Structures are given as C-alpha cells and as structure tokens.
Amino acid sequence: MKCAIPSGITVKIAVSPPLPLQRAFMIVRPQYHWFRRLFIWHGSVLPHILLRLCLNLLMALLAVSCTRWYGQWGIRLTLAPFSVLGVAIAIALGFRNNASYARFAEARLLWGQLLITQRSLLRQVKSMLPQRQRDSEYCAALQIGFCHALKHQLRQSDPRADLARVLPAGVLAQLRQHPAPGNRLLLLLGQWFGQLRSRQQLSDILFQALDGNLNQLSSILGGCERIANTPIPLAYTLILHRSVYLFCTLLPFALVSELHYMTLLVSVFVSYTLISLEYLAEELEDPFGSRENNLPLHALCNAIEISLLEMNDARWLPGRHQADHRYRLM
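Request: output the structure for the sequence above.
Response:
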C-alpha cells in the first residue's frame, strides 16, 4: 500500500513476510516442577562450560593418582587458604553478577519504554491529525525503521535489508549517507513535525507534546548506546576470571587428603557453581548480544511493528515471533 506524504515522499507500508532471523535468541521456558528443572539442558550454561568441567575432573583425577607421590616430597595443600579465598571469590562473583544483571534489567526497561513511547507518539499523531491517515502511516513507518535501526546498531549488524522492507524509498536514500540511521530517523521525524507546525497544522502546544516524545526516543537511544559502548572494566573482570579458574584448578589438591575419591565429585560440583556464575555474568554483561540469555531484539522489534501497524488498521500484520521447540525466542 502506498500513500503520499506532505513532502512528496511515497510511504511504502511493508506487506512482505519477515526476513530470516539471525541466530540470536533468548530462552523462554515455562515454570517446571523443581525436580524436572534439575535435568534441563537447553537454556542451561552447562553445555557451554562442560569442557571446562571435564578439565577440572582431569585435575581431580591427577590429584587422586599422584597424592602419594607429591606427599613424599612434603608438598601438601590444606583447605584453610581455600576457605578464605572461596568466601572472597563468592562475594566478588555476587557483585559481578549484580552489575551484569543491572545492565540487563536497564536494557529491558529501555526497550519497554521504547514500545510505550512509540505507541504514544503515533496515538498523538492520529489524534491531532485525524483526517490524514497517510501522515500516521508515514510516522509509523519511520518509528518501525527506528527500532530496527537501533537493533542492528546495538548488534553491529547490517540494517539495510530491514530498513528497505519498512521505510519509504526517499527516506532510505537519505539514510544511506549516514552511519547512524537511528539518530537520522529521529531528525527526520523532528523536521517533519516542524514542517507541520510551520504550515499551521500543529499548534505550539501540540508540537511541544510531540517533541517531548521525540526527546524520550532520543534518551532511549542514548541509554542503549551507553550500555553497549561502556562494558564493565576489563581489569575487574580479568581478576575475577583468573581467580575462579586458579581456585578450581588447585582445589582438588587440597581436597584429596581428606576426601580421597570423593574429591572428583566435590571438586566438579564446586567448579560448576563458580564457573557457571562467572559465565552467566559474562553473558548478561552485554544484554544486546546473541547469546541464549540476551534480549530477544528480533521479537521486541516484531512486537513494536505489529502494535504500530495495528493502530493504523493495516490490512496485513506480520506473524508474532514464538519460541521454537528448544524454547529459544529470537
């Protein structure tokens, strides 16, 4: 469906099926019984740290098999230093996970606010210009393009295919000349509102209301860029990473004198707890990435697109993204 906007650009509302999704997803599982949860594989960090646990198991086997040999040389590790170091590592891991989850939670709040703001902006356009359906369609197209541009900017992927699907040809030509299409789309929306105001189609009060939502979208864009561009300091992450792996490597040699063959089980279990927490913190640190516990930006953009097209009474709506058989929501 095409319609002309006041500036002479043609608006093209997407009627083609959604593009193939990139391999970036979030695990969305129903709440299972506590016993069944013990055996969940998909969505767990266990597949990603299994090799590291196997290496720890080999170290435990080495400690058990060589305990008599290095005991003759007077080499012996006790649990005392590991008790003190274990408490320190646990506290540091707690702070690390809290910092990473705070970034994840803020990112989710920003994308939730994005949906709210875009709905409000389109509602204002439709209420203030009720006889100009083409204007609301143009506004919706630019907003849908903005959320897709933001998604690709955060994941450092190519936005051209998605933007070509949802944006007018004239707008798309302008975006090719700019490295930040999301920010440019906000500028185009602001200029369009300014043209309506200069033609006396918007009063100063109504213009301020619309501009306030544009400022909110700009704040969301800046908040997402801040999270994506300022990771947790590497020195802090590196210290904790080295401490966890050194602790897990030497732990079997401290356990073997008291636990003997049970060293294998206890060492792997302790290593699983520490390494999985460290790995999960690393995943959550970048909430816009493509790992299993990152935000499903494809699904969020899909929800925004459906919501805005539905407000415009579009004849065709894209299918809503659903989790696959492995509970992955892309």
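Confidence is low (pLDDT under 50) at residues 1-23.
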